Amino acid sequence: MNVKQMFNIAGAYVGVVVGAGFASGQEILQFFTYFGWWGTLGGIVAGLLFAWFGYQLLQLGSGMNASSHKQAIHLISGKYLGWLLDIIITFFLFGVAGIMLAGGGAVLNQQFGVPVTIGSIIILVLTILTLLLNMEKMVSVISIFTPFLLIAVLIITIGAYFTMDKDFATLASFAKPDKAATSSWIFGAFLYVSYNLAATAPILITMGGKISYDKRTLGMGGMMGGLTLGLLVLIIHLGMLSHLDQLTGIDLPTLYLANQQFPWLAPILSIIILGMIFNTAVGMLYTFTSRMVSSESPKFKYALIASGILAYVSSLFGFSKLVGTVYPIMGYLGFLLMGATIFAWLRKKSRLTSFSNEKLEY
């Protein structure tokens, strides 16, 4: 097992899951922190689930030699369920594009006072221009923001512990389960992992198939990445819990905490989050549109503009509302993918057991 390769895989897994919604704190607020101390247990459960599924998906991809998104889904889900999941994931990409436009508008409004609708239009125009002009280098440069985003969020959330003016027992009384995205903390943990896997499982499986690392290194890298994600969820959750009485109705909790504690860091964090939002919007809108119309087709640019306008219309529902609606719906459907993964794992174990029994009989 190669330790360096294991860290590379873990970093890639974290990078796939961590995005603008994660960094803004809104997802963690709705799926964990609104449940108070119970959300802490939810974070631990989510970390263990991320670790187990990361391990299995990367090993499955290696065993299948998966080479594409579509192939990966069909390999673990079968012909008919695979077709259904492919359609579901495609439209989820459209939903995430709308959420990114709403998130961009929310950041520009909260930090710089730009009207939300105008902010969303700015992000949309930049996204479409980038795709039409094929500015791939710009997108790759923006992806470099990820480690800086994590550092900034960790500074803010850890700093929140040292500026809290109430004890945790008092702050826990401000928990608002009725505002959470789900009915219970345990279901919230499963749903959070489920919708993230719906978007990342095809990437992890394909990664496992294309990278020539040994299966154990891939699996352990996935486990380490999953545990790291769980740790990040807990750190951000506890940081927000330390100021929970101030966060109700705030679209971007981590940005709010930055303004309260480190005003000099808030504009930097805003720009980093905008970079992540822009990067994600470009990827989601391109993937959705290219699934509908071939990127080589003369109609692609018109389909791209139409998709962008529809995504903008969906963004008008608001960032917090979209996060609390689209992600849970995708989470429910993502349970199908989790089930298919578990079934593939059980089938693999069954084959190994049968093979061992045959050898014993022989």
UniProtKB/TrEMBL annotation:
Is Nucleotide-binding included in the keywords of this UniProt record? no
Q: Organism's domain of life?
A: Bacteria
Query: Would the keyword Ion transport turn up in this protein's UniProt record?
Result: no
Q: Where does the record locate the signal sequence feature?
A: none
| Keywords associated with the record | Membrane, Transmembrane, Transmembrane helix
Where is the chain membrane-spanning? 35-55, 80-106, 112-132, 144-164, 184-205, 217-244, 264-288, 300-319, 325-346
Question: Which PANTHER family is this protein grouped with?
Answer: CONSERVED MEMBRANE PROTEIN, MEMBRANE PROTEIN
Q: What is this protein called?
A: Putative membrane protein YkvI
- Recorded source organism is Tepidibacillus fermentans
